[in-house]
Specification:
The complex is a heterodimer.
Chain A (H helix, E strand, L loop, with lengths): L1 H10 L3 E4 L3 E8 L2 E8 L7 H24 L7 E5 L4 E5 L3 E3 H8 L6 H14 L2 E2 L8 E4 L5 E3 L6 E2 L3 H18 L4 H16 L3 H14 L6 H5 L9
Antiparallel strand pairs in A: 1-2, 2-3, 3-5, 4-5, 6-8, 7-10, 8-9
Chain B lengths: L14 E6 L4 E8 L5 E8 L9 H23 L8 E7 L3 H18 L3 E5 H13 L5 E5 L4 E7 L2 E7 L5 H11 L7 E2 L2 E2 H5 L13 E2 L2 E2 L2 H12 L4 H27 L3 E5 L6 H13 L3 E2 L11 H13 L4 E2 L34
The chains are: A alpha+beta, B alpha/beta.
Chain lengths: 235, 358
Amino acid sequence: MLSNKILNWIATLPLLSRGAESELRLGELYNTRIVFKFRRPKNYMDPSLDRLLRRKRTFKEAKIIVEARKYGVRSPAVLLFMPELFLIGLEYIDGITLKEYLEREGDKAVPLAAEAGRMIGILHKHCISHGDPTTSNLILSSRNGHLYLIDYGLADYTCSIEDLAVDLHLFRRAVRSTHPQYEDTLYSHFLQGYRSVLGARSKDIEDRAQLIELRGRYVEERRTVWQRHEDYGSH
Amino acid sequence: MANVATRNSYQNNNIILGIESTAHTLGVAIVSDNPPYILADVRYKYVPQKGGILPREVAQFFSLNAGRAVSEALEQAGLDPRELDAIAVALGPGLGPALRVGATIGRALATHLRIPLIGVNHAIAHLEIARALTGLLDPVFLYVSGGNTTVTSHVGGYYRVFGETLDIALGNALDTFARESGIAPPYVKGGRHAIDYCAENGAFIEELPYTVKGQDVSFSGLLTASLRALKKGYKIEDVCYTFREIAYSSVVEVTERGLAHIGKKQVLTTGGVAASDLLNWKLEKMSEAHNAKFKRIPKRYAGDNGVMIALTGLLSLKYGVGIVEPRRAYIRQRWRLDRVPVPWFPDTIPLWRYTVNA
């Protein structure tokens, strides 16, 4: 079968990364470098459910990327879309992640967070949450010096303040655990960019992000919050 | 109180009586830190004739059986109460009226015998007994029961929550569906849930929603849609099959995401729903795909029991945490597991060497 041939060929390409659900491999088509994102089957699910979910997620991810680009969020173009294979081909952005850039350049890299905030702001303005806005999912292109937002695997259509606030919270949490020394400056630049898009609407979402942190559903950093609680510890 | 153990004064020879009374099971057990470790394990389980669990009725059932449970445990262990070194009691989370019964027995025993009283978090106890029974000491846990659905793992002194339900717990969703669709009570027959029997000849239908948001799951939409599908005339075995398939797959998927994120190489499941064969099969498959080790815990210790409370009490005593003055041993109905310091980690009591598939 042709579809098996394609997947077998992709499996021979160099692996860029492997997540909980998909693998990214780097290949070339018509002299253009292309990143193949393949959603692996989950053999612990009923095959109908597994195919249904992978199909839905493949569709949603491609659709959201196309929309994001339409609204002006720099993201890799969708070059190949084969939902029946649960496969997307994405433009390869040559460059380094914001995470690496921060580690290398320090303070100089911080103002880039405003651009990240602006991109998340545009998504939110159009009722899209990114779901995983970390400094590893922002790439600084070596070709044009612009920042690109990648990995829409957890993105969703939503306009609920809670869901949008989770994006802000996730960015802050990611910064705190990876670049604690820049937490405040990075986040304030991020918010600057974010507010420049959302204007007055930003306040509610920022406040909710604060609340989510205090509520502490998302954990790693909760310790600072705990210490304010009188029922800290076990008596 | 004079007799408060600290880590320095700890002698490796303690016998602890543990009391569990957070929900439907009154458990009294005695555990020692020397083989064979489990000296007594008494359980009185409240089974409603119809409907669900009413907190007041459970509390009454517990009160009626409490005295008997304690003396039976001592008898099983062949011990005089004066040979006990401490009392451990689950102070939360759970149903208020039910918790109060256990707390009252605990305070009374500790005061009368003049030994330390240890407040144990019920959720932590489920995690600890899973580690102790399997020997997988640093896993990613899926804790699933009537009141909990949590992906957790130990990082920096605490069990951290990496994913959880946004609304109702998995066990609650299964029981509510079973009750509303008329296939329960009884909820459990011969060690299997009513939905397992109902799902036997079912097939997958595309009618029901699957909700995983990032690291979290949600079941209320699935529950509503399933009951609606029944009214629309879908076959009950198909709805049962699909409900169960979606519910279990979604918790395994959030465990998978937790595993990929944290990067550990062991997986355990614990809590009442961890007795499910299907859930264990799915977790095993998922773990294989990530080169992680998975072991199932014996069914007998998946659900609530006194042994896990005594065991966790023993570890707390050894590391000098959790000791409370009886008059201050308040119950805590919403006591979160990520608020409890766990200094003994990865230490444990090696039950896996002696408890062969009990």
